[in-house]
Every structure is written in C-alpha cells, then in structure tokens.
C-alpha cells in the first residue's frame, strides 16, 4: 500500500498531565506505525515535545495548523497544534481544569475531523474524568462524549484482548443505577451491536453469550428477578431476529468460556463486570519493578458513524512523567483503527 492511500488516523493527546503524551511519543517513534497508517496527533505541540524528552525517543515534532499540512513522515510526528496548554503551569500527575479543557478540546476536534471526512479514524489516549468535569464538561468518559458529539443514541463499549471480546449494557454510572438500566430494550440493542461487530470483523454466525446480573444468574429467581423479566426476554427476541445468542449465563463462568472460545463475544451488564476479566488478562503488574509489565487490550465504541478505538488504560497519574508507561495498548489501538478504516478483517 502506498503512503498516500494509507488511512489517516487522528490520535488525541489525552490528558496532558497523564501518560497519554509519552505513550504517543513512544508509539510515534516506531516505524511500524507509519507502515500501517498516516498518524496525526491532535493536541498541544509543546506537550508532545516534552513527552518526547520524557520518553527518550528519537523523533521530531512537526506542528501543523490543519490536516492537509501534515507530512506523515517517520521521524517527525505531525501534531495538529491546538496551542491550549501552558507548559509552565502544567503539573504532571495532577487534576486541573486546564488539562481537562485541553484534553476535551482534542477529543471534540478529532470527532469533528472524522465527521467532516478529513481523517479516516480516531484513536484516543486517556483522559481524566475529574479534570474534564472541573473544566465544566460534564461527561463520564470518552464513550459519552462521542455519543453526544456524533448525535448517536445507541452505542456501546467493546473491549478486546486477544480472543476475549466484551460489550456493555451500561458503563460509567453508579452500580445502583447500572442495575436499573438492565432493561430488555437496551440489552437487545447491545446484542445487535455485538452481532454486527462480529460480522464486520469476519466472524461468521457469531455466538453471543449474555451475562446475568445477579450471582449464578439469579439461580431460578432466588437472588433476583432481572434475569427472568429483562435478560431472558431480550435473548429470546434476539433469537427471533436470527441472532445466535445464549443467556442469561452466570457471570462467574461466562468470561472463562468466552476466553476459551465457546462464545465469540460476551455481553456484560455493567462496567466492572466486563472490565475486570479483560484487565486481569491484559494488565500485569510487576511489584518488584513497581511498573506494569504488560498493558494490553483496546476499547472500541460500536454504533458510531465514525471509527473510535482507544487504549484500555487510564491516565496513570502516579507514573506520569517518569517514562515508564507502556505504549502496547496504543499500538494495538492504532493497528485496529487502521484495519477498520481500510475495511479489512481484524485478526482477533
């Protein structure tokens, strides 16, 4: 593939006080990224320059005012410079309205670029929810921002690590509210989105495992009623639509079965139910070295009119500026975004 036909990926800077800029610097210093796509970072060029120093990588920074000015050349990372961070007052590892505003600006800018077809896909580095709310933007995460700014009502979060794929009925809400959101209509929509995603990625006749909400999927009603009243009816409706779905399945066994290949994708009822199994598999902490040995897994938002792939880790304020952060998840996100933009099959 010639360089002029490779997909253009807009990569948001993330929170400038977190590890986003340094993992971007590390990823941008790898030629494999430029073999896959034409990346352009959306954020503050001065922040990326500092991140290059922190990451101790050999790459220059090329600030541009618009996407058409980018050179997309390995050795000089292009940055659509929003000039929205005062480096002198930026404190790494700390919550601030300035950092929240800068990261939010990068996200809304990259969404606009994708909606206007100036870029082919978006990749997001982590933001800090407290910082963006401190800046006056009351969203609970990237997924909700993308939903709002693309005018999308029905969307869901897909997490992927290896062959384990999990979508969510709800994400960034309290556990008490998450239980209230376990409704037949929403569960059915998420099953449909899961099925469409699997088909898009080349999985023929995907088998979808749907988790229960309660322990042992309520054990026939002993521990709750949601399985009988909401989840099972949603699964039955999906089957009537010729979708291969099974459930409700006890959550403590579903994810192991999905990891082992029995199910192509799993539907989780709430945030932690789906995130914990993914992160137990993909995140490995080395206590002796006091750092993450592995940070794998990516986050894809399904149902949007544009492509959004993200790292599946946070801002890691505790190690920001130390050069320890791993770029693994970002590299995987870039790979998936590039393949999705090309319309090709992603290797799960």
UniProtKB/TrEMBL annotation:
PANTHER family attached to this UniProt entry: 4-HYDROXYTHREONINE-4-PHOSPHATE DEHYDROGENASE, D-THREONATE 4-PHOSPHATE DEHYDROGENASE
Name this protein carries in UniProt: 4-hydroxythreonine-4-phosphate dehydrogenase 2
Originating organism: Sedimentisphaera salicampi
A GO term, aspect molecular function: metal ion binding
Record-linked InterPro entries: PdxA_fam
Top EC group: oxidoreductase
Superkingdom per UniProt: Bacteria
Pfam families associated with the record: PdxA (PF04166)
EC identifiers of the protein: 1.1.1.262
Alphabetized UniProt keyword annotations: Metal-binding, NAD, Oxidoreductase
Organism ancestry: Bacteria, Pseudomonadati, Planctomycetota, Phycisphaerae, Sedimentisphaerales
């Amino acid at each position: 593939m010639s360089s002029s036909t490779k997909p253009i990926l807009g990569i948001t800077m993330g929170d400038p006080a977190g590890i986003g800029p340094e993992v971007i610097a590390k990823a941008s210093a790898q030629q494999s990224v430029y073999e896959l796509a034409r990346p352009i970072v959306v954020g503050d060029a001065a922040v990326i320059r500092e991140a290059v120093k922190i990451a101790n990588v050999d790459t220059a920074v090329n600030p541009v005012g618009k996407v058409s000015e980018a050179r997309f050349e390995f050795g000089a990372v292009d940055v659509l410079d929003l000039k929205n961070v005062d480096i002198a007052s930026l404190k790494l590892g700390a919550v601030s309205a300035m950092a929240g505003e800068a990261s939010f600006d990068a996200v809304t800018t990259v969404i606009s670029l994708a909606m206007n077809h100036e870029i082919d896909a978006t990749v997001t580095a982590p933001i800090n929810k407290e910082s963006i709310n401190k800046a006056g933007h009351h969203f609970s995460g990237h997924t909700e921002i993308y939903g709002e700014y693309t005018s999308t009502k029905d969307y869901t979060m897909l997490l992927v690590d290896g062959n384990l794929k999990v979508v969510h009925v709800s994400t960034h809400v309290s556990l008490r509210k998450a239980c209230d959101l376990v409704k037949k209509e929403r569960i059915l929509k998420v099953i449909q989105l899961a099925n469409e995603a699997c088909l898009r990625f080349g999985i023929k006749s995907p088998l979808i495992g749907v988790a229960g909400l309660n322990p042992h999927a309520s054990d026939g009603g002993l521990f709750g009623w949601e399985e009988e009243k909401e989840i099972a009816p949603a699964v039955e409706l999906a089957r009537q639509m010729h979708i291969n779905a099974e459930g409700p399945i006890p959550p403590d066994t579903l994810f192991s079965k999905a990891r082992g290949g029995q199910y192509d994708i799993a539907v989780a009822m709430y945030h932690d139910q789906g995130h914990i199994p993914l992160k137990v598999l993909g995140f490995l902490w080395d206590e002796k070295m006091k750092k993450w040995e592995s940070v794998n897994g990516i986050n894809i938002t399904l149902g949007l009119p544009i492509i959004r792939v993200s790292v599946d880790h946070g801002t890691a304020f505790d190690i920001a500026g130390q050069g320890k952060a791993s770029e693994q998840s970002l590299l995987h996100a870039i790979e998936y975004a590039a393949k999705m933009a090309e319309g090709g099959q992603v290797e799960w």
